[in-house]
Amino acid sequence: MSPAAGRRAWAAVAAAVVAVLLSAVPALAHGFSSTVYVGLTSPKAGHVRTELRLEYDLLVVSAADYQKDDPLFRAGTAAFEDGDAAEQAVALDGHADSVVAYVTHRLGVTAGGAACTPARDGDFTIEQREGVPYALLVLDYRCPRSAEAHEVRSGLFPDSEGYVRDTKTIVTYDLDLTSGSTALDAQHRSFSTHQSGAERFWTFFRLGAEHLLTGLDHILFLLALVVGSRRLREIVLAATTFTLAHSVTFVLAALGLVQVPASFVEPVIALSIAVVAGWHLWRLWRRRSHATDLETSGHGHLSLDRAGWARLAVVFCFGLVHGLGFASALGIDSAWSWTLLWSLLVFNVGIETVQLAIVAAVFPLLALLRQRRPVVGLWVTGAVAAGVSLMGLLWFVQRMFGI
What we know:
By secondary structure, the protein is an alpha+beta fold. It is built from 13 helices and eleven strands. The strands form two sheets. Strands 1, 2, 5, 6, 7, 9 and 10 form a seven-stranded mixed sheet that branches.
């Protein structure tokens, strides 16, 4: 390799490493988002019963700040730090006016364009979702007139408050002779119960796509698969295996049939990134001077050797865990229904579309680089794998020990 080519190779390596390490910055904010769950039913005409499940500590600080209620903040924070669900409920009940004022200011229901009037129904209760305390608040909205459609607006826990990066509001409804589900966020704050099928599809498709795009841990895992696959057949098999695995646990977990705490899921996802990226580094080390060889040595089914099949097994096992991470983003665990299944499948389609787009964009470029400049391709993929593996190990330590 000429000196000029060598300089270009090292520049490419440096750029790849820097890109991977810098990309870790937004990933540290991946967990600093919140999900609100809203269930809407109509016991009778002019009456909308709303069950809200809101992250407890976030509700306390937001409501206390909105109402300038320092006693709520002190009592709620103390109960949260003690992990006492009963005291958490007492803190909310003792300052119900502040909490309800905050929630109803940011969550509204209208019927035919006329605002419905909310009233609290019963005391607060505390539930656990993936080890996180959630407050259950029931509001009865009384509407001035009957209407063929209701509109729901949600601006709960906006990033302007400075406490979370983003909030998704997952809504399920059985109103106006129709049922369905949707998701609201900062860009899409309202919906109508008479939304079209295309609108419902786009909502969950977008939610799945955004989750993968903003979840750098999942993207780095996919990148580790890409750089570790030397032929198109390998990446197709790896991506298919990952898809099948995470689809199974995604649906089971989102339906509430499988429950695994986030304290286990998140560290294992980080470990999976390090292991899959490290697998490529091990293959390079094992081949040493023959590492630039584009052909594999296996002659078994699908031209995979024992190491290739072992890699697929590892990808499948880790894919099962990634499915649990995808499900936690959607957070629906209600009883089985065709409406729910439809939402889950569309969400998954959004994930898969972005995943395929990443593979289609990155793999051909790497394949071309390996073919035209084998040594450069070797260093670039090795550097990317090293950076990804390093970040996976860093996240693993952070998530295991809460650093």
